Amino acid sequence: MSSPTPKWSVVTRRDLRRTRRYAVDGATLRVSWLGLNGSLFVVQRARVANVSEDGIEVELPEAAQLLSRVKLQGDRYNLLGEGTVRFCRRTTARYLVGIEFVDGLRWRPPDDSIPEPIPLSGPADQAS
């Protein structure tokens, strides 16, 4: 007897991801984004929660509009680019915001298997 095909509700979001996410240790970025009421927000030290080849998750003090553009800047990581807000969910006092990179912005994962959390970049692995 064959097992039934799982229904959509059984498939988790994690199963649908195209690339692996890496937990990040201690990295912060300058982030500019539109709030829910259309106001522009800028934070100098937004904590990076995780990163993948296609996007990044940051912690922000205010919610971000879905599908709006977000500017990301990290001089320490040689990162300057934009992304699109894919999700925004409230945690205790902050918002976790998932941002999909756009306009050719990508992050290169480490070549070797290293324990997580990882640094956002090292001397040989710069975000571009």
Written account of the structure:
By secondary structure, this protein is mainly β. The protein has a domain at 19-101: predicted glycosyltransferase like domains (Thrombin, subunit H), CATH 2.40.10.220. Helix content is 3%, strand content 41%. The chain has a six-stranded antiparallel barrel with strand order 2-3-4-7-6-5. Strand 2 (28-34) and strand 3 (40-51) form a beta hairpin. It is globular, with a radius of gyration of 16 Å. The protein starts with 12 loop residues before the first helix and ends in a 27-residue tail after the last strand.
Structural descriptors:
disordered C terminus; Thrombin, subunit H; mainly beta; 128 residues; 41% strand; 3% helix
Q: State the distance separating the first and last CA atoms.
A: 50 Å
Q: Output the strand order for the largest sheet.
A: 2-3-4-7-6-5
CATH names the topology of the domain at 19-101 as Thrombin, subunit H
Mean pLDDT: 84
Sequence-ordered SSE layout with sheet pairings:
Blueprint: H1 13-16, E1 22-23, E2 28-34, E3 40-51, E4 55-60, E5 69-74, E6 79-90, E7 95-101
Antiparallel strand pairs: 1-3, 2-3, 2-5, 3-4, 4-7, 5-6, 6-7
Q: What's this entry about, in short?
A:
The protein is mainly beta and 128 residues long. It has one helix spanning 13-16, and strands at residues 22-23, 28-34, 40-51, 55-60, 69-74, 79-90, 95-101. It has a domain at 19-101: Thrombin, subunit H (Beta Barrel), CATH 2.40.10.
